Amino acid sequence: MSASGDDFDAEQRVSELEEAARRLQRQLAQSKAKTAELVEAVYQAAHDAALVAGKPAPVAKPKADRRKGGEVALLHITDTHVGAVTPTYNTKVAGERIAATVGKTVDLTNINRADHPVDECVVMLGGDLIEQTAQFPNQAWAVDASTFDQMFTAARYISDALLTLLANFQRVMVYSVPGNHGRVGKGKGRQSVEYESATNWDSITCRIVREQMENQDRLSWSAGEGWYKVVEIGEYRALLHHGDTIRGFGGNIPAYGILRKHLSWSAGVMPDFTDAYLGHFHTPMSLPLANGRGRVFVTPSLVSDSAYAKEWVAATSVPAQRLHFVHPRRGVTGEFLLWV
After folding, report:
1. Quick check: pTM over 0.90?
2. Fewer beta carbons under 10 A from the terminal one: N or C of the chain?
3. pLDDT averaged over every residue in the chain
């Protein structure tokens, strides 16, 4: 084909991408009235997002470890709040801290590999991936990007993280749940206008990532939508949820409400689980369940100088995420808070 023909094809491609981007913005802005219409627009938006951003080439598979007795790296990424602004946090810092979290995960995994194989990484995306702009009245002045831009920036950060993990693990499995900052709609009680988890901004962000990464054949995603997931690693069962369903702290002490809720759930209300993982409270905790069955792990946020943590949890918000190593029969063998 001639050079002029190549130029024409390139111009046509750019035109198609620009139109896809414009259609995406119109769908997200206009689809407010009916849940079904919003769901359809969201799914089309995810497809268009993959078209605009393009799909990365498949990542080369790392060398397999033929030894027996392997474990799984369990990485909890939650409360990244991309778009939030504090004296020490913004969208750029969010990307740097997500990358640092993944880098520390790879480093610690390589240390463990000196003793036994760690071929698989299970990633738990725990919600509040973005800050949004409509959670509280003055939020528009506490962010550095629109909800639209936050969502696609977060998708890019997560995609980059998964690509790095694919370069270092044989298999990567992703479980995701939505958070309260991803809710579509605002208001309380009967005036609330909210939709199911499939139309939560966190779920939409994850859908965009899935569309962009669909040609990575070593990357798998858990099926279905919902406010919780049960993560299965052999005989180990982890209950993953965001944490915003826990209220009534009992004197503003969140540990009380967290333990009370999980003890009720472990009595047969929820599917059987060994340990539970949540975020939301922006401070690290490890709470043993009274029945001796397991523990509740609360993972802090990536946000530093969080007003929420200071006001509601009475704690400073040192940014960190959580990495565990799990044996399929023995359960958790190593626990790390990844301070970034």
Report:
1. no
2. N
3. 84
